[in-house]
């Protein structure tokens, strides 16, 4: 299958926009373990997964990792082009969890077409909302599950001390 078969709003773009995308997309392959994007100093572009699996995570100063989401076939990653979104204030690392084939859409090309195309802007907003929901779910799991375990451990310790 071709790029257009993986890009959901392809048929809603103008012929000129399709041509511009087709001329600028880059096809890449990553082996399991390869780091594809590292932090905000790297504005790779948007990643559209053809086949494989990537993991997006944040890394603490102490070296701890938190996976914020995984990218599978036909998923698109906006955060690898965080330079086009000035309100993004965190660094994300993306690595291949499996051998992966993907396309890179240069950030400047995507941003230009998005400014011209309401369907592409809506699609981008939907992706951003979905990723935001995934991250919020993760934060809830970390905060509340961790808090619940701390409370449970405290109660167990208090009960054990009374026995």
Structure description:
- With about 160 residues, the chain is α+β, with helices and mostly antiparallel strands.
- Helices cover about 40% and strands about 25% of the residues.
- The chain has helices spanning about 5, 15-25, 105-115, 120-160, and strands at about 25-30, 35-40, 45-50, 55-60, 65-70, 75, 95, 100-105.
- Strand 4 (about 55-60) and strand 5 (about 65-70) form a beta hairpin.
- The longest helix has about 45 residues, at about 120-160.
- The model has no long low-confidence stretch (mean pLDDT about 85).
- It comes from Candidatus Anaerostipes avistercoris.
- This is Cyclic nucleotide-binding domain-containing protein.
- InterPro entries: cNMP-bd_dom (IPR000595), cNMP-bd_dom_sf (IPR018490), RmlC-like_jellyroll (IPR014710).
- It holds the Pfam family cNMP_binding.
């Amino acid at each position: 299958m071709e790029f257009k078969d993986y890009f959901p709003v392809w048929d809603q773009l103008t012929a000129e926009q399709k041509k511009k995308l087709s001329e600028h997309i880059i096809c890449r392959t990553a082996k399991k373990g390869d780091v594809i994007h590292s932090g905000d100093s790297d504005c790779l572009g948007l990643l559209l997964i053809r086949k494989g699996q990537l993991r997006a995570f944040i890394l603490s100063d102490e070296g701890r990792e938190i996976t914020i989401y995984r990218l599978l076939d036909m998923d698109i990653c906006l955060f690898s082009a965080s330079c086009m979104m000035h309100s993004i204030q965190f660094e994300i690392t993306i690595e291949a969890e499996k051998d992966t084939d993907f396309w890179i859409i240069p950030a400047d090309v995507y941003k230009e077409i998005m400014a011209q195309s309401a369907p592409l802007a809506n699609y981008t907003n939907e992706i951003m909302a979905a990723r935001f929901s995934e991250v919020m779910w993760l934060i809830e799991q970390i905060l509340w599950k961790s808090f619940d375990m701390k409370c449970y451990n405290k109660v167990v310790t208090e009960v054990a001390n009374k026995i």
